[in-house]
Amino acid sequence: MKSSNQLNHNLSARIDVIQGDITQQQVDAIVNAANESLLGGGGVDGAIHRAAGKQLLEECRTLGGCSSGEAKITKGYKLPAKWVIHTVGPIWRGGNNGEDDLLRSCYRHSLNLAEKKGIRTIAFPAISTGVYRFPLDRATKIAINEVKQFLRENLSFEQVIFVCFGDDSYRCYFKNVSELVPLRGIKN
Ligand code: AR6
Question: Mind telling me the catalytic residues?
């Protein structure tokens, strides 16, 4: 039987934080922080559509949009990732309008969809923390806790990478992963 230490160790080896551009990640799937139209936009959404090419928009047009907290999947086209999981984060409206639950739901639905498709490695951006103005530290804790729970329940899922675009985001994720995922980096 595995001790709780071994479980924690496994968890820490399966969660990574990097600073970079999500469109460059060599993983099975990358997650897009989209809007309800799924027809592209700015921020990470714009970057993913530019890197994937026009075929991504063509496939997105067939999906009929996506509600906040839900997720839909397309191919990755010109991206190194085979799949793109499009999820729609909540717009921050002060914090008492279901924003936390909706953000949790984005991570949970994206991961469940990935699991169903046989995806084993996935990269997430910091959903809702840009144009949608969700406070970074609060969003980061939600992201990490939801991923932790999923990885504990899905032991064959290999890797979740949090891709941070700027210094602030990287520092915030690194601090929170260190606190919320025990034994990070310790191999024993
Ligand atoms: N790689 C990784 N992260 C990135 C990249 C990138 N290439 N580019 C930006 N980020 P945002 P939201 C980070 O605004 O808040 C779009 O117009 C960025 O620094 O992209 O969920 C959609 O169409 C921030 O930390 O998404 C929606 O209308 C994070 O990604 C709306 O924005 C999310 O910022 C969604 O807003």
Answer: 45
